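Protocol step 4 of 5: obtain the predicted structure for the target chain.
Materials: sequence only (see below). No template structures provided, no constraints applied. The aim of this step is simply to have a reference model before the mutagenesis design in step 5. Sequence pasted as it appears in the construct record:
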Amino acid sequence: RQITITNNNPTESLPEGYTVNFSLPTTGDSFLDNGDDIRIVFNNTFEIDRINTSSFNSPDTTLWFKIQLNISAGGSDNNHWVYYRNSQAISPPEQASNVYDFFDDFNDGIINPLWQQTSTWIESGGIISPLSGAERPVLLLQKNYTGVYVEAMMMPNAAGFQGGILTRAQDSNNFYDYMIETSDRTTIYKR
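Step 4 output (structure tokens):
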């Protein structure tokens, strides 16, 4: 099935590598229940990574992928395709770092080198923690974006470590801080 991607912005193009999503119903005998048969292909020549952020075998499955060419302001493209109905399909390409501009799920034991660290951090099982005894540890990713969606999960640890996300940081005295203070209290600070 052909995917038509329309750029609704009349003044700016969507650059190659921009992440987009689409939804399709994945119920019935046309799809494997685990979604392994659903593939995104560019120009009928090569398969590209895709990430599912919902459920398969659902009336509304959402898949994310990077477009493989620029789409002009107000233009559209129909060079991306979705394929399914392959009952023998196994493990499609779904490397999140090939779909999103930045991704780290803290599951591989290696801290992404894009993170800047003020102290030593360790990651394991989807959780990143400062090494015991670290004073005011900071894990920083400096990227400038406009109109983006950020997803993060945070929780204070048993020792009461508080985590937060800084945004619009200009210097150490001028930023917004979304802070998790306890398991039932979050606060947004403007400094």
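Step 4 remarks: The chain has a mean pLDDT of 81. The CA atoms of residues 115 and 141 lie 5 Å apart.
Proceed to step 5.
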